[in-house]
Amino acid sequence: xxxxxxxxxxxxxxxxxxxxxxxxxxxxxxxxxxxxxxxxxxxxxxxxxxxxxxxxxxxxxxxxxxxxxxxxxxxxxxxxxxxxxxxxxxxxxxxxxxxxxxxxxxxxxxxxxxxxxxxxxxxxxxxxxxxxxxxxxxxx
Length: 140
Fold this sequence. Notes:
50% of the residues lie in helices and 19% in strands. The chain is α+β, with helices and mostly antiparallel strands. Strands 1-2-3 form a 3-stranded antiparallel sheet. Helix 1 (5-12) packs across helix 2 (60-73) and helix 2 (60-73) crosses helix 5. The longest helix is centred in the C-terminal third of the chain and has 22 residues, at 101-122. The protein is globular. The model has no long low-confidence stretch (mean pLDDT 91).
């Protein structure tokens, strides 16, 4: 299996690893089939993701996609983070082997799950986000 240099870099030295103790949005997504589990922690202030951390239990692609996805949304407004697609994650890593594309979907879903949690805590209905997550599930 061929991994891009970017994937290897993010796997060897992943960015934003850890836990945010006072996170106000936390999402966990697991894929039973491959055993990958991703947990995303978001610290959101005034609709801006001021900090993001992740804990991922999984393969090189799962760790690399979590790492690059957190890079892509850090410092961004929620509206931008909601637009993040797994395709953008794959492109940022200069591609992923076809069998590992699901890892990028997991990264996208974990972020959306954390944003959904944030909305729930704010008393805002997170329905639009949840719909996005369910859409992906039908593809597999």
